[in-house]
Predict the structure.
Amino acid sequence: MRTTLTYNIRVYGIVQGVGFRPFVSRTCKDNRITGTVANKGSYVEIFAQGDSVGNLFDALKHTPPDRAVILNTITHECDMPAFDSFEIIESEKDSGDIFVSPDIAICEDCKKELFDPTNRRYMHPFINCTNCGPRLTILDSMPYDRERTSMKEFDMCPECEYEYTHPETRRYDAQPVCCPNCGPSVYLIETGIGNEVNGSNTGNITARGRDAISAARKALADGKIVAVKGIGGFHLACDAKNENAVARLRELKHRPMKPFAVMMKDMDTVLRECSLGDELFEKNLSGEKKSAESGQSEEGIRELLTGYQKPIVLLEKKSEAGSDSGTVLAESVAPDNPYVGVMLPYTPLHMLLFNYDDEYEVSDCLVMTSANASGAPICRTDEDALNEIAGFTDYILSNDRMIRTRADDSVTDFYKGRPYMIRRSRGFAPLPVMISDRQDEVGALKGCVLAVGGELKNTFAIAKDSLIYPSAYVGDMEDIRTVNALEESIKRMQSLLEAEPSLVVCDMHPKYNTTAAAESLGLTVMKIQHHYAHILSCMAENDYLDEVIGVSFDGTGYGTDGTIWGGEFLRCDVSGFERLGSITPFIQCGGDLSSKEGWRIAASLLGDFAGGENGLGKDVICDELKLCSPMEFSLLENMARTGINSITSTSAGRLFDAVSAILGIRRSSTFEGEASTALMFEAERYLKKNMDKISFGAAEGLDISKDFTSGLARDIAARVLSGEDRGSLAYRFHSDLAGYIIESCRIYSEESGIRTVALSGGVFQNKLLLGLVDEGLKKEGFKVLRHSLIPPNDGGICVGQALAGMAAISGR
């Protein structure tokens, strides 16, 4: 049989679910190249014959699909029988690295068709194409083909099938392709808040199709609350301009202060309500009003808001800055908070809520917050919604396309022109973190590990060789429903990635639900310290495996000595850590309440229950600072003396809470981080008002040999009593703490010779502290590793756990 020179090309990366095979097919047909292309699960394989194969290589390098991420291409020559044409052939499974595409926001081409009355998909709430639509959340298994997604329940009509099978169309090989004649359908369920739903979990469907969307729009226009099923779960939506509607949602959801995310109709609305850029930090860091970094931030934020991932982005409210621009957001959206979390519509259904061919006028700003009962994961099914959130919403706008994997909205801040992730989920998960370990090195990362993550803000990760795949956001593990969601999500992710872990890694806290979940899997269990996992996550994101000084500051972590850690300096590499030091320990009284009631920590620090010197008296703490009553003080003092419901702690997060209470900003918190973020806001307001009077920077010349923790709290209390400005003291606290961190790193560096510092932990979600420490360390000549797309909070520690596990099984 006659054979022909053939190029076998294997392309690795995000090349499934992004229109890669149609792109290859079109390129080859345009260049008279014959052969085949197929998904292999872990890569796309191309066989190409012809004189113009070089044009295919050029296209792969320079003009791949917009959503594709090519990580590696391996090519070799072979002899095969001649092909008559170029075809997309049936997918086959093969072993190797697997790259699952995250869900992709609606593209501009589909958006134009959505609002084109002459298009057959006009106002179709599930319009998608090769370049957009759901991916991870509808996927059953790899390779990514329609029969392995929840779209297999919908038979394509002849028109859609033609588009799906013909390369000249935009929907060639687009797995979720559908139209109003053959795709999923929407329907409206009336809940009747406070009433039993139709006596069962089926609900009362009152409208379908176009009528359902119009009814939902009318409800929103009338100030009602509507639960809306999106790509990865349900949202609770209401008019973000309507104070009564937002306040009602807060009351029903028992969420008095925690900010709501807002979906805004378009960029014009965003610019009316919010400021882009990061002017506060960039002016102070650069000394100029408009630095290069400022321009990068504005451009980067705009790109992130309008791009295909469309996360929630924290932006400064113009109304907070005293603008007269006509901002209209209800105060209850983000009470006493200068920032608001903003996203643009990322599904066709979201767009139709804002624009539809009916008579209703819907607000251009809608609250769009995750729909879940307190402590539970985001609702995924109608049954979830009816059982858990029917009491929060007047209507449920749902559809019959099944969500296989939950995916909350991603939430990000911005720092120095780059995203600074708070919650990594939709649009980003499960893109892997790559560790560039040479495969021929001794101790190269080989094997498979499951890391179950933290107890709060849980995400888990699966590591296969040098790739670590963090999951979408799961939630807080205090609720059994979230634990069940974790276990379900782990099974699905293992199936998608064809992963068979030999080791499961978890936190060393003996009472965490994640620890119990890890121990129930029947695998060898490796437990690692919480703050060490934080530093490893930062090292992994920065692809840095040499020794570092790790500064791990957060709220709570179980220490190797059985106490609560949280303000730690660690000497770390992938094989282990040494605790170099910490902030001065104090007594944390009150058990779980102490994480919510900062006044308890303040009284403990000022009263010096740990046994130090120069503690303030009960009369000052109770009568002058008004932190607590004399009875409460006596109870705390007795707890500390007897050891009942109290423990030694070095929690930096609790130190923030204590200072917030001392300054009279927040005596206690209604949600995690409320007191500490309010303290940061106070410091930022002071900076903005005094930009020309003070120099941005960490305090210098601090004596860290003394009792820094209690000493700092007592100094601030004394200044409060002397009448100093609260904002000035809030900034002073940040500056002093940053100076303490920098001086500690300098000393530990002199002792160890290490000149690289990794910053991680939830406290470094505070950009003011981050900026002070980052700049101060760089001035001292340190290399600084910080986070960007992996959260510094507990949502990122699964990555560090996974790296520790891979290092262990690889003999590192």
